[in-house]
Amino acid sequence: MSKQTGAHTHEEKGKNVPVILFFTGLALFFIGLFLGNMLLVKNILFSLAAILAGYHIIGEGFGDTYRDTKNNRKFSPNIHLLMTLAAVGSALMGSFEESALLILIFAAAHFLEDYAQGKSQREITKLLNLNPTEARRITDDGSIQTVSVEQLKIGDRVQVLNGAQIPTDGVVIEGSTAVDESSINGESIPKEKNSGDPVFGSTMNGSGTIVVEVTKDSSETVFAKIVQLVNQSQENQSEIASKIKRFEPKYVTLVLAVFPLIVLGGALLFQLTWAESFYRGLVFLIAAS
Description:
Mean pLDDT: 88
Membrane topology: Multi-pass membrane protein
GO biological process, one term: copper ion transport
Number of helices: 7
Family: Belongs to the cation transport ATPase (P-type) (TC 3.A.3) family. Type IB subfamily.
Keywords: ATP-binding, Cell membrane, Copper, Copper transport, Ion transport, Magnesium, Membrane, Metal-binding, Nucleotide-binding, Translocase, Transmembrane, Transmembrane helix, Transport
Number of domains: 2
Oligomer: single chain
Organism: Enterococcus faecalis
Low-confidence stretches: 1-11
């Protein structure tokens, strides 16, 4: 038990490190903004802010590109590489503040995306945990037999004690109670149920013991259909994410190929200075990221 607790603690600490470094970098960035004419110190702080806040982005940009290129045996860059190159380019032009700001914004978006995905996964796990697993089936001789919900058949009678979870969809045939149906419809106010009223699996029985006649297989209950819809939605999102992931290297490669054309075209065709032309190329990289 202590080993598991220790492993969990180390895992949580590992998850917190990027967040701590991000806010440290953010603090350094704001300190740099208020240093007035201390240009050297400001640039150092902005550089540290970019490195601390975006080290994982920089690592994914260069490290993952190298690894994927090696594994795929072809150039396989990712979107993090674009933002990293744009930040490095800004720093090379002396715009350390803009470089740090780019990394901070991108890192913040990265954290928000991870948080949203994590929250979504936690909500799905929470939903699945509401799925009932056992039922108190009433046999022909009137005795109670504890069975899995999957063993219930249409027409079976189940006893639901007060405070217990209703195992499947059915209709009340004995007793009266108040049922919390928030797992189905989000309504937190318990609903009165009497003989002849429908009840739904995963909802919570409240004040009284009831007997329910099963009207649906466990795979056809309202709750089961909700779970199916959620799983289908997750699968669709995964398919979209996979397609984007496959397209990403091609997109980034195209952007990297266009970047030098913008720089050269600006300088040679539109008579811009090399600095101006390079800056326009950086703007393109940032927009493409």
